[in-house]
Amino acid sequence: MDEGPGLRVGETVPDAAATLVSPDGETETVSLSELTADGPALVVFYTNDFSPDCVQEWCDFRDFGWFATTEDVRVVGVSRSRVSTHRRFIDRLDLPFSLFSDRDLDLTEAFGVRYRVLGLVARPHRSVFLIDEDRTVRYRWIADHPIDPSRDTPEMSEVHEAVQDYLAG
């Protein structure tokens, strides 16, 4: 039975790196092992900045509140958008989250969620992964729209519950 794209729960993510844009606009190259050195991370792959579905998704994360205020888990986004676009996106939406600029799709490939839109443009499959300090996948959600996986968005309460279950465990 085909379980679709992406790493499975229990698998370890290879230690890839990309440029991370923080909410204050600063940038640095950060590896996944550096990202998770102080605790688990929720890694959220999305299409690109300013597409309506992605604006809604990041507003949902921001407005859910818990993800923005907890220090128990670090929330980061990943898309192919450029650093300058990430800065504008963070500012426009007043996001408290850092965003990876995965121009070469190194992070996307590390998680196994690269695909081509209509067989042409490579980008990340919309997905969410909770990874622990050892980069082991503890939770995953992957869009399952048959034609365009950018159309599905994760249910915030489901993601929150999965994170809470992991932290309690």
Could you walk me through the main structural features you see in this protein, from its secondary elements to its overall organization?
The protein has one domain (17-168): Glutaredoxin (3-Layer(aba) Sandwich), CATH 3.40.30. It is globular and about 40 Å long. 30% of the residues lie in helices and 26% in strands. A seven-stranded mixed β-sheet has the order 2-1-5-4-3-8-9. A two-stranded antiparallel ribbon has the order 6-7. The mean pLDDT is 88. The N and C termini lie far apart (29 Å). The chain is α+β, with helices and mostly antiparallel strands and 169 residues long.
Helical region count? 6
Task: Let me know the number of strands.
Answer: 9
Compute the number of structural domains.
Answer: 1
Low-pLDDT segments: none
| Percent helix | 25-40%
Strand content of the residues, in percent? 25-35%
How is the topology of this model organized?
Elements: E1 17-21, E2 27-31, H1 32-35, E3 41-45, H2 52-64, H3 66-69, E4 74-79, H4 83-93, E5 98-101, H5 106-110, E6 114-117, E7 121-124, E8 127-131, E9 137-142, H6 156-168
In short, what is this structure?
The chain is of the alpha+beta class. It contains six helices and nine strands; from the N terminus they run ββαβααβαβαββββα. Helices cover 30% and strands 26% of the residues.
Features:
single chain, 169 residues, alpha+beta, Glutaredoxin, 7-stranded mixed beta sheet, two-stranded antiparallel ribbon, 9 strands, 30% helix
